[in-house]
Amino acid sequence: MIPVRKLLRAGTALAAVLGLAFTATDELRVPEPAPAVAADPQVQAPVWTAETDRGTSVFEGIETKPGSVEVVADPQGEHDDVYRLHTSGVPEGSERVRVESRGHKTPDGGRLRFTEGDTYYIGWRSMWEPLPTKTGEWVALWQLKDYGSGAGTPPLSLRARGDVLDLEYCDPDMKTTQLWKIPLPRDSWNSFVVGVHVSSDPGKGWVKFWHNGEEQVLNGQNQFPAATLRADFVTDKWGVYRSDGITGEATAYLADAKVGRSYADVAG
């Protein structure tokens, strides 16, 4: 007969292998599960997402002068389907070359527009290739554009100028300030988030900006004070819109576009 003490030792060893606890009263005890990790209360569902299975109906409008906007497979293979905004680069009459999305539509057909006092964060990934540029000329790749009475030059623009990508602010007096710049990245995905508090008062409105997950300094500040509204409302645009001195085909790819109430809602 095997002594009880040996049986207890064997049971303890087996329990250790199975990850169980063997008590002094010869009972096996299953460890309590680890407490669940609470969800981050700061993260909310985006208020708008560019779901490619909805095609271009996710946008309030499409401007193709000339050009096309379609859903395609990511040519880099890093994402699922993405938007491809392409222009042949041949002007139509006196119109500047433009192929852009405009605004946001929710699945129920509602229009998301930014008005006085709103705070929104817009996140997306962009890739550009081909993208002809020229020193002294500009290509707008993203715009925060105002609409209605008083609309003019966009308050914010992400632009390519020669081999530089920059973020530009235009104040109500049409004075422009270069807030940020890097060498223009071509043929690779880059992520962006723009945080905007919408106000016609430059003492209340502000802009924040992230590139590839890192918050950027805007003209010496992380939060740049700005009048981000000069008309009835603002919304944003993605694509290619350029000055007259640039010719040739251009393509902008767009992925993971979202609008939310915080950086966490749209980042990643």
TrEMBL record:
Source organism of the structure: Saccharopolyspora elongata
Q: What is the lineage of its organism?
A: Bacteria, Bacillati, Actinomycetota, Actinomycetes, Pseudonocardiales
From the Swiss-Prot or TrEMBL record, give the protein name.
Answer: Polysaccharide lyase
Write the signal peptide boundaries.
1-15
Q: Does the keyword Signal apply?
A: yes
Classify the source by domain of life.
Answer: Bacteria
Query: What keywords does the record list, in alphabetical order?
Result: Signal
Q: Which InterPro entries match?
A: Polysacc_lyase
